[in-house]
Design a protein that fits this description.
- The chain is an alpha/beta fold.
- Helices cover 46% and strands 16% of the residues.
- The chain is built from 11 helices and 8 strands.
- Strands 1-2-4-3-5-6-7-8 form an 8-stranded mixed sheet, sandwiched between helices.
- β3, α1 and β4 form a beta-alpha-beta unit.
- α2 packs across α3.
- The two termini are 30 Å apart.
- The protein binds D-malate (MLT).
- D-malate (MLT) binds next to loops.
Length: 263
Protein backbone atom coordinates (compact mmCIF):
# COMPACT_ATOMS: atom_id res chain seq x y z
CA UNK A 1 0.00 0.00 0.00
CA UNK A 2 1.28 3.45 -0.80
CA UNK A 3 -0.96 5.30 1.55
CA UNK A 4 -4.58 6.22 2.13
CA UNK A 5 -6.93 8.88 0.84
CA UNK A 6 -9.98 9.44 3.03
CA UNK A 7 -9.08 6.04 4.59
CA UNK A 8 -9.07 4.25 1.22
CA UNK A 9 -5.96 2.19 0.54
CA UNK A 10 -4.32 2.99 -2.79
CA UNK A 11 -1.39 1.45 -4.63
CA UNK A 12 0.66 2.96 -7.42
CA UNK A 13 3.16 1.51 -9.89
CA UNK A 14 5.27 3.43 -12.36
CA UNK A 15 6.28 7.02 -12.90
CA UNK A 16 3.67 9.57 -11.88
CA UNK A 17 4.66 11.79 -14.80
CA UNK A 18 3.43 9.17 -17.28
CA UNK A 19 -0.14 8.82 -18.50
CA UNK A 20 -2.33 7.58 -15.62
CA UNK A 21 -4.56 4.51 -15.64
CA UNK A 22 -6.94 3.94 -12.75
CA UNK A 23 -8.01 0.34 -12.19
CA UNK A 24 -11.26 -0.37 -10.35
CA UNK A 25 -11.67 -3.95 -9.18
CA UNK A 26 -14.68 -6.27 -9.06
CA UNK A 27 -16.59 -7.85 -6.18
CA UNK A 28 -15.64 -9.52 -3.80
CA UNK A 29 -12.02 -8.94 -4.74
CA UNK A 30 -9.51 -6.15 -4.21
CA UNK A 31 -6.73 -4.36 -6.07
CA UNK A 32 -4.72 -7.61 -6.39
CA UNK A 33 -6.90 -8.71 -9.30
CA UNK A 34 -5.03 -6.20 -11.49
CA UNK A 35 -1.53 -7.39 -10.44
CA UNK A 36 -0.62 -8.71 -13.89
CA UNK A 37 -1.86 -5.57 -15.64
CA UNK A 38 0.00 -3.22 -13.28
CA UNK A 39 3.17 -5.30 -13.71
CA UNK A 40 2.95 -5.22 -17.52
CA UNK A 41 1.86 -1.61 -17.95
CA UNK A 42 3.83 0.25 -15.27
CA UNK A 43 6.84 0.77 -17.55
CA UNK A 44 4.85 3.10 -19.79
CA UNK A 45 1.97 4.21 -17.58
CA UNK A 46 1.31 5.44 -14.06
CA UNK A 47 -0.89 2.62 -12.74
CA UNK A 48 -3.17 3.53 -9.84
CA UNK A 49 -5.19 0.90 -7.99
CA UNK A 50 -7.22 1.12 -4.82
CA UNK A 51 -9.35 -1.07 -2.62
CA UNK A 52 -13.01 -0.14 -2.89
CA UNK A 53 -14.47 0.83 0.49
CA UNK A 54 -15.46 -2.33 2.38
CA UNK A 55 -13.07 -4.63 0.49
CA UNK A 56 -9.39 -5.51 0.76
CA UNK A 57 -7.69 -3.31 3.34
CA UNK A 58 -10.01 -0.32 2.90
CA UNK A 59 -12.29 0.09 5.92
CA UNK A 60 -15.90 -1.10 6.01
CA UNK A 61 -17.15 1.48 8.48
CA UNK A 62 -20.88 1.03 8.92
CA UNK A 63 -21.20 -0.61 5.46
CA UNK A 64 -23.67 2.01 4.25
CA UNK A 65 -22.38 2.34 0.68
CA UNK A 66 -24.04 3.38 -2.56
CA UNK A 67 -22.75 3.34 -6.13
CA UNK A 68 -22.75 7.13 -5.83
CA UNK A 69 -20.48 7.04 -2.77
CA UNK A 70 -18.13 4.69 -4.67
CA UNK A 71 -17.98 7.27 -7.48
CA UNK A 72 -17.30 10.01 -4.90
CA UNK A 73 -14.37 7.90 -3.60
CA UNK A 74 -12.94 7.52 -7.11
CA UNK A 75 -13.32 11.23 -7.78
CA UNK A 76 -11.48 12.08 -4.58
CA UNK A 77 -8.62 9.70 -5.42
CA UNK A 78 -8.24 11.30 -8.85
CA UNK A 79 -8.28 14.76 -7.30
CA UNK A 80 -5.82 13.99 -4.48
CA UNK A 81 -3.38 12.23 -6.82
CA UNK A 82 -3.78 15.01 -9.35
CA UNK A 83 -4.56 12.58 -12.18
CA UNK A 84 -5.05 14.38 -15.46
CA UNK A 85 -7.58 12.67 -17.74
CA UNK A 86 -6.72 9.12 -16.68
CA UNK A 87 -7.70 6.03 -18.60
CA UNK A 88 -10.39 4.44 -16.45
CA UNK A 89 -10.42 0.63 -16.36
CA UNK A 90 -13.11 -1.19 -14.40
CA UNK A 91 -14.22 -4.80 -14.10
CA UNK A 92 -17.75 -5.81 -13.18
CA UNK A 93 -18.64 -3.81 -10.03
CA UNK A 94 -15.62 -1.68 -10.95
CA UNK A 95 -17.28 -1.32 -14.36
CA UNK A 96 -20.55 -0.17 -12.73
CA UNK A 97 -18.50 2.47 -10.88
CA UNK A 98 -16.70 3.40 -14.11
CA UNK A 99 -19.87 3.67 -16.20
CA UNK A 100 -21.55 5.84 -13.58
CA UNK A 101 -18.38 7.95 -13.17
CA UNK A 102 -18.31 8.59 -16.90
CA UNK A 103 -21.98 9.56 -16.75
CA UNK A 104 -21.34 11.97 -13.87
CA UNK A 105 -17.98 13.45 -14.90
CA UNK A 106 -17.26 12.45 -18.49
CA UNK A 107 -14.68 15.14 -19.23
CA UNK A 108 -12.38 14.11 -16.40
CA UNK A 109 -11.37 10.95 -18.29
CA UNK A 110 -9.18 10.32 -21.32
CA UNK A 111 -10.37 6.82 -22.27
CA UNK A 112 -12.40 3.92 -20.91
CA UNK A 113 -11.80 0.18 -20.57
CA UNK A 114 -14.77 -1.95 -19.54
CA UNK A 115 -14.05 -5.54 -18.56
CA UNK A 116 -16.78 -8.09 -17.90
CA UNK A 117 -19.43 -5.63 -16.79
CA UNK A 118 -22.84 -4.35 -17.80
CA UNK A 119 -24.90 -1.19 -18.07
CA UNK A 120 -28.20 -2.55 -16.72
CA UNK A 121 -29.28 -2.27 -13.09
CA UNK A 122 -30.39 -5.37 -11.18
CA UNK A 123 -33.83 -6.61 -12.20
CA UNK A 124 -36.24 -8.06 -9.62
CA UNK A 125 -34.64 -11.49 -9.79
CA UNK A 126 -31.20 -9.94 -9.33
CA UNK A 127 -32.35 -7.91 -6.32
CA UNK A 128 -33.84 -11.03 -4.71
CA UNK A 129 -30.51 -12.83 -5.23
CA UNK A 130 -28.75 -9.97 -3.43
CA UNK A 131 -31.26 -10.22 -0.56
CA UNK A 132 -30.65 -13.98 -0.36
CA UNK A 133 -26.88 -13.35 -0.25
CA UNK A 134 -27.29 -10.99 2.70
CA UNK A 135 -29.53 -13.48 4.48
CA UNK A 136 -26.94 -16.22 3.91
CA UNK A 137 -24.13 -14.04 5.28
CA UNK A 138 -26.23 -12.98 8.29
CA UNK A 139 -26.95 -16.59 9.15
CA UNK A 140 -23.30 -17.63 9.37
CA UNK A 141 -22.84 -18.50 5.69
CA UNK A 142 -20.21 -15.92 4.75
CA UNK A 143 -17.59 -18.46 3.66
CA UNK A 144 -20.14 -20.53 1.72
CA UNK A 145 -21.34 -17.38 -0.02
CA UNK A 146 -17.77 -16.54 -1.07
CA UNK A 147 -17.15 -20.14 -2.22
CA UNK A 148 -20.14 -20.20 -4.52
CA UNK A 149 -19.92 -16.58 -5.73
CA UNK A 150 -16.24 -16.79 -6.64
CA UNK A 151 -16.66 -20.16 -8.35
CA UNK A 152 -19.33 -18.67 -10.58
CA UNK A 153 -16.92 -15.88 -11.57
CA UNK A 154 -14.27 -18.13 -13.08
CA UNK A 155 -14.25 -20.18 -16.26
CA UNK A 156 -13.91 -23.95 -15.89
CA UNK A 157 -10.47 -24.08 -17.50
CA UNK A 158 -8.88 -21.71 -14.99
CA UNK A 159 -10.30 -23.50 -11.95
CA UNK A 160 -9.04 -26.88 -13.22
CA UNK A 161 -5.65 -25.78 -14.50
CA UNK A 162 -4.75 -23.23 -11.79
CA UNK A 163 -6.02 -24.82 -8.60
CA UNK A 164 -3.53 -23.06 -6.32
CA UNK A 165 -4.12 -19.65 -7.94
CA UNK A 166 -7.87 -20.14 -7.68
CA UNK A 167 -7.68 -21.26 -4.04
CA UNK A 168 -5.59 -18.19 -3.23
CA UNK A 169 -8.27 -15.91 -4.71
CA UNK A 170 -10.98 -17.62 -2.64
CA UNK A 171 -8.87 -17.43 0.52
CA UNK A 172 -8.18 -13.76 -0.04
CA UNK A 173 -11.87 -13.02 -0.68
CA UNK A 174 -12.76 -14.68 2.62
CA UNK A 175 -10.52 -12.19 4.43
CA UNK A 176 -12.94 -9.39 3.54
CA UNK A 177 -15.07 -7.98 6.31
CA UNK A 178 -18.66 -9.35 5.97
CA UNK A 179 -19.97 -5.86 6.76
CA UNK A 180 -18.08 -4.46 3.79
CA UNK A 181 -19.19 -7.32 1.55
CA UNK A 182 -22.85 -6.79 2.47
CA UNK A 183 -22.45 -3.05 1.92
CA UNK A 184 -21.19 -3.72 -1.62
CA UNK A 185 -24.07 -6.14 -2.26
CA UNK A 186 -26.58 -3.45 -1.27
CA UNK A 187 -24.78 -0.78 -3.30
CA UNK A 188 -24.95 -3.02 -6.39
CA UNK A 189 -28.64 -3.81 -5.77
CA UNK A 190 -29.42 -0.09 -5.52
CA UNK A 191 -27.42 1.13 -8.52
CA UNK A 192 -29.01 2.89 -11.48
CA UNK A 193 -28.76 1.67 -15.07
CA UNK A 194 -26.30 3.53 -17.29
CA UNK A 195 -27.75 2.31 -20.61
CA UNK A 196 -29.18 5.70 -21.62
CA UNK A 197 -25.69 7.21 -21.36
CA UNK A 198 -23.81 4.71 -23.55
CA UNK A 199 -24.45 6.58 -26.80
CA UNK A 200 -23.17 9.79 -25.16
CA UNK A 201 -19.76 8.36 -24.25
CA UNK A 202 -17.32 10.34 -26.33
CA UNK A 203 -14.16 8.54 -25.19
CA UNK A 204 -12.10 5.88 -26.94
CA UNK A 205 -13.45 2.74 -25.30
CA UNK A 206 -12.28 -0.86 -25.13
CA UNK A 207 -14.79 -3.53 -24.11
CA UNK A 208 -13.32 -6.88 -23.00
CA UNK A 209 -15.37 -10.01 -22.27
CA UNK A 210 -14.56 -13.64 -21.48
CA UNK A 211 -16.48 -15.98 -23.79
CA UNK A 212 -17.63 -18.02 -20.77
CA UNK A 213 -18.62 -15.05 -18.64
CA UNK A 214 -21.89 -16.02 -16.93
CA UNK A 215 -22.42 -12.71 -15.09
CA UNK A 216 -21.95 -10.32 -18.00
CA UNK A 217 -22.20 -12.59 -21.05
CA UNK A 218 -20.71 -11.77 -24.46
CA UNK A 219 -24.05 -10.87 -26.09
CA UNK A 220 -24.76 -8.32 -23.34
CA UNK A 221 -21.30 -6.81 -23.58
CA UNK A 222 -21.33 -6.76 -27.38
CA UNK A 223 -24.62 -4.89 -27.33
CA UNK A 224 -23.13 -2.43 -24.84
CA UNK A 225 -20.09 -1.92 -27.10
CA UNK A 226 -22.39 -1.40 -30.10
CA UNK A 227 -24.05 1.51 -28.31
CA UNK A 228 -20.75 3.28 -27.45
CA UNK A 229 -19.74 5.25 -30.56
CA UNK A 230 -15.94 4.92 -30.45
CA UNK A 231 -15.55 1.43 -29.05
CA UNK A 232 -13.80 -1.85 -29.76
CA UNK A 233 -15.05 -5.22 -28.55
CA UNK A 234 -12.57 -7.98 -27.69
CA UNK A 235 -13.74 -11.49 -26.84
CA UNK A 236 -11.25 -13.49 -24.75
CA UNK A 237 -11.39 -17.24 -25.39
CA UNK A 238 -11.60 -19.84 -22.62
CA UNK A 239 -12.20 -17.26 -19.91
CA UNK A 240 -15.05 -16.51 -17.53
CA UNK A 241 -15.82 -13.27 -15.73
CA UNK A 242 -12.30 -12.69 -14.37
CA UNK A 243 -10.43 -12.16 -17.65
CA UNK A 244 -7.52 -10.12 -16.16
CA UNK A 245 -6.67 -13.01 -13.82
CA UNK A 246 -7.64 -15.89 -16.10
CA UNK A 247 -6.00 -14.66 -19.31
CA UNK A 248 -3.54 -11.91 -18.35
CA UNK A 249 -1.54 -12.10 -21.57
CA UNK A 250 -4.58 -11.74 -23.83
CA UNK A 251 -6.00 -8.93 -21.69
CA UNK A 252 -2.65 -7.12 -21.48
CA UNK A 253 -2.20 -7.42 -25.25
CA UNK A 254 -5.68 -6.00 -25.88
CA UNK A 255 -5.12 -3.14 -23.41
CA UNK A 256 -1.61 -2.46 -24.76
CA UNK A 257 -2.88 -2.27 -28.34
CA UNK A 258 -5.72 0.01 -27.27
CA UNK A 259 -3.40 2.32 -25.33
CA UNK A 260 -0.98 2.47 -28.27
CA UNK A 261 -3.84 3.60 -30.48
CA UNK A 262 -4.43 6.59 -28.19
CA UNK A 263 -0.92 8.01 -28.69
C1 LIG B 1 -18.33 -8.45 -9.72
O1 LIG B 1 -17.55 -9.24 -10.25
O2 LIG B 1 -17.98 -7.30 -9.42
C2 LIG B 1 -19.74 -8.90 -9.45
O3 LIG B 1 -19.96 -10.11 -10.08
C3 LIG B 1 -20.76 -7.93 -9.91
C4 LIG B 1 -22.15 -8.34 -9.58
O4 LIG B 1 -22.38 -9.19 -8.71
O5 LIG B 1 -23.08 -7.77 -10.18
Amino acid sequence: MNSTINNLAYFTDGDKNKKPIVFVHGFPFDHFMWDEQAKALCRDFYCVRYDIRGLGVSPSGDGQFTMESFVDDLELIMYELNLNKPVLCGLSMGGYISLRSVERMHDKFGALILCDTKDSADDNEGKLKRAAAIKQINSGGFENFIDSFVLNCFGEEYVKANKSGYDAVVKRSKKNNPIGVKGCVLAMAGRTATTHNLSKINLPTLVICGNEDKLSPPNVMKSMADQIPNSNFVLVKDAGHMTPIEKPKEVNDAIGKFLDSLE
